[in-house]
Design brief:
There is one protein chain. The protein is mostly beta strands. It has a single domain (about 1-100, about 195-380), classed as Porin. It contains three helices and 21 strands. A 16-stranded antiparallel barrel has the order 1-2-3-5-6-7-10-11-12-15-16-17-18-19-20-21. Strands 8-9 form a two-stranded antiparallel sheet. Strands 13-14 form a two-stranded antiparallel sheet. Strand 13 and strand 14 (about 245) form a beta hairpin. The longest helix is centred in the N-terminal third of the chain and has 15 residues, at about 1-15.
């Protein structure tokens, strides 16, 4: 934590001294958010709802160094879990200190010369998954994941895509293991097309994810474990027990995605979206597909505005690597299905309140349902 605060202090000092520097001033773009959440959940096997209070924070600087170089350094609450940046109040000793972790640290180079005109960008470091890849929703990636490695993009600027063709490829490191050259890693490629027809904006495309050296790997060597003595397989098929659990499948995931949106006759915004994924790796014969479909009505973008969203998801046991999918529905991972409904309202400027309800079956066809209510208060600054 001391190292992280030192980094932010140096950034701030550098930013404040720009007027004295001979170089052109840097646009520092400080950003942050603070979330307070109460949630209550239960499994059908337990008649009681279990409640908890949670706190989440992000804070960082995203400087534009010049017209071709930008970057970001961000800290966040949370610990080692890649799919959560929330701190559970009371989870430590009474009123004890909680952690701030390095959540993002990256540089992006976007050349204007060589005929590239700013359309091609290379980023290196640890960065938000939604800025590295085209991410329609959370079928494959939890919103809190930050990828570590290299990303090459065409016609993509952060989370936004240019009209027409866009492309992304990346190489990301899951674990740097000592004594072996076969470190678990991920190679990915995406193509997408964005356009507008008849007043409706749309985007469609596809992804390919190739997880390297993951089949036969020991889960405890690279995955987050809430219980280190008995790490979760996140729904995926495995052999062994305890810290000796080994993944038995390879994961070469083909994804198709699309969204479309516009306004109704009264000016009310709408959006529909969908994802489909299939693990096409050899030897995976069943439980290898996943899909998510949903729609949003309204747009909570200023005071007094609201939005309603609903989606249905189904994820087969080995449709994708479960460690990085949404960590909330059916307690994370694969092998589940069900609905999520959420409502958001802008109460005052920069203050969002939301109510969310999850009703999912944990382990498909088991009849064991997981229900979760969440109430959120979020401030962005």
């Amino acid at each position: 934590m001391k190292k992280t605060l030192a980094i932010l202090s140096m950034l701030a000092a550098a930013g404040w001294s720009q007027e004295a520097a001979a170089a052109a001033p840097i646009e520092w773009n400080w950003k942050g958010d603070l979330l307070y959440r109460y949630e209550s959940s239960r499994l059908d096997t337990d008649p009681r709802f279990d409640g908890s209070h949670r706190l989440g924070m992000h804070f960082g600087a995203f400087p534009k160094i010049n017209d071709e170089i930008s970057g970001g350094v961000e800290v966040a609450t949370g610990k080692d879990n890649p799919t959560s940046r929330l701190y559970v109040l009371g989870s430590g000793d009474a009123f004890s200190m909680s952690d701030l972790m390095l959540n993002q640290a990256y540089l992006e180079v976007r050349p204007l010369s060589y005929g590239l005109e700013g359309k091609v960008a290379l980023s290196a470091g640890k960065r938000d998954v939604s800025e590295c890849l085209v991410r329609v929703n959370d079928l494959l990636w939890d919103t809190d994941v930050t990828l570590e490695g290299l990303t090459l993009q065409y016609a993509k600027h952060g989370k936004k895509l240019e009209q027409g063709l866009s492309a992304t490829t990346g190489y990301y490191i899951l674990d740097e293991a000592d004594g072996t050259a076969n470190d678990p890693a991920l190679w990915t490629a995406q193509l997408a097309w964005s356009g507008k027809a008849g007043g409706v904006g749309y985007m469609l495309g596809g992804s390919y994810y190739d997880y390297l050296h993951i089949e036969g790997s020991t889960i405890a060597d690279w995955a987050y474990a809430k219980d280190p003595a008995n790490p979760s397989s996140f729904g995926n098929t495995f052999t062994g027990t305890g810290t000796g659990k080994i993944l038995t499948c390879d994961y070469n995931v083909l994804e198709l995605f699309a969204n479309a949106g516009g306004t109704l006759g009264n000016g009310l915004p709408w959006k529909a979206y969908g994802q489909y994924a299939s693990n096409v790796a050899g030897g995976v014969e069943s439980n290898d597909t996943a899909y998510l479909v949903g729609a949003t009505l309204g747009r909570a973008d200023r005071v007094g505005k609201w939005s309603l969203d609903a989606n249905y998801v189904s994820i087969g046991k080995d449709a994708t690597l479960g460690a990085f999918t949404d960590g909330t529905r059916f307690k994370g991972g694969t092998d589940g299905q069900g609905v999520k409904i959420s409502a958001t309202y802008v109460l005052v400027r920069d203050l969002f309140v939301a109510l969310k309800y999850y009703n999912h079956e944990k382990v498909i066809d088991s009849g064991n349902r997981y229900q979760l209510w969440q109430t959120d208060m979020l401030v962005r600054f």
